[in-house]
Amino acid sequence: MAVKQPDSSYRLEQYRQELVTTIIVTAIAVIALGIYVMPLIFGVVTSLKTQAQASDPNAPLLPSDVITFEYEGEELDVFTVPLEDGDRPLAMLQPGRRASTFIDPAAPDAEPIEWEGNWRQLEPVRELSVQWGNYPEAWSTIDFLRLLVNTLIYAFVTMIGTVIASSMVAYGFARFRFPFKNVLFIVLLATIILPPAVTLVPTYAFFVTVLDWGGTWWPLIVPQMFGNAYNVFLLRQYFLTIPREMEEAATIDGAGPIKTFFQVILPQAVPALTAVALFHFFFAWNDFFGPLIYLAGNPDANPISVGLTLFNGLYQTRNELVLAAAVISMIPPLVIFFAAQRVFVQGIVITGVDK
Amino acid sequence: MDMVTEVYAAQKKIGGESRNLFRMTAARRREALWGLFFISPWLIGFSLFYLVPMIASLWFSTLDFTLSRPDEAQFIGLDNWQHMLFEDPQTWQALRVTLVFALISLPIGMITAFLLAVLLNSKHLIGRDLFRTLFYAPTMVPVIASILIWSQVLNAQTGWVNQAIDLTGVQASGANGIRWLDDPKLIYISYTLIGLWGIGNAMLINLAALQGVPTQLYEAAEIDGAGWFRRLWNVTVPMVTPVIFYNLIISVVGLMQYFIVPWVLNGGDGYPEGTTRFMMIQFYQQAFAFQNMGYGATVAWFIFVVGLAITALLFATGRYWVYYAGESR
What we know:
Largest interface: A-B, 106 and 117 residues
Radius of gyration of chain A: 32 Å
Strand content of chain B: under 5%
Oligomer: heterodimer
């Protein structure tokens, strides 16, 4: 008996429905993305405006500037003037409350044109004018190079420390049996929910009064040399997936645990180590509270996060410069993310999903 | 396994292991010593930067101790605690502010993260990988940069949000317009919007969980005639409750430390009308602005106890609504 085939009109209908769903879903995604990244576009666009335009509610959306016309050594503003023969862009020679005189930039030698009405109601003529100069200005005003060097040194020094320490601890939890292992493991993970405030006051008092480390990087660097719970967890999960046979082979060849760790485990775990290094880099780039309290007396040591905040406080009227500085500060993390997103995403997923 | 499952697993194994180093065989003892060697960085770090400071913090809370005059520190018993709990109105205000903000921002943030994950998991979406990258990108924007950008995009006059609302005919900019960052009734919504640029990780974890839901479940539901929403609500949501739970815990931990946004926007002065005086702001003011180490430590312990209580509550209720496949609990 022949199996009943769905006829072609049915298949066509099904195909049409799939197409409609695809269009709708993709359109929703496009609109949602547009709304979601709108502030980013706003930030970039505003960072390219003039100071006047950045704080003018009636200014056009795109960076633009009022057109001027040079006439006999003077800069004249150009307005759209409604004349009998239609709107014309004219340069204002003599403003007046009831009537003003204008020069036609197309024919500057002709007689000035008289126009009756309040010139303040005229719309200035603007042209697209992108203030790329805001970026170098923001860069030098905020002394970005110093902030960048500070942040990079902090990020890399603590990255090396935390990767080495966290991978050691993770290996210990992944492969060895020792007393109170499960209790310690729970305590380790419990430190994630511990608010840093509860340890901060004595730590601060100790670093600042006993060791006199106020204004230096030491209180920020030293505590990160001992591993951190997220990183340990992520690396442990990864180490558990490495087959034990490789370590057993190394042991038979006479390698001790330290040698096995460095020569067998770490080379196998490069993706997880990269993920941890990246997480730490982004953490350091954003770290705020620690630098805020420990570097309070020494602004030269500030990282980008604190430097940008101070800059925002000092340049309240220069919206475009603040945004230019903000845009500069997001370039390194975004570039690294786009370059390494596969490793990165895998790392995030390991900590939160039951696989 | 994810973190929460691992905690449950480790909990079950407690007690099943030998603890006395001297009662082990030589091989087991060597293994245990090597294990302790490898975890020693954390043991040292935990003792120095968690255990001792926590206890010291509790001790500090019994002192009248100003950092600039350490020699004059003196024991005052429970005075700090009494002052904090019964006399200082800012304590309870900070707690209320933090909890109200949590009740508004947590559901919005978590639902947005989940819905975005559903969207990005749809097989009908063209260019899925590109969309996933682009939706995650704002999470990579440094926190300070994103606050500065949001504070200007929400500006009542020059911000695009109000200008976009103007286009619909409602006058949002102008004197009587929508003042996102000045109106006590809107401030938590504005802060929540700023927070939406940080939901990338929650979104990714949701997405990974969605990809792990067995397709047979959907097929079975479809045969039973369940529509899109029924499948989402009755199949997808229960299957991803573990990651919802995980995201919830992580979000609560983050909210207990909520500091940077109010600090950057208004220097932690509580503007408008004290609505942004979060617990961490209160802590910062006492401990670092006033250098009052004793009272600061007391506030810190208060934050810790509140956070612990909420987390414990979540773990206690979690067993009723979090679905762990293959576990009978």
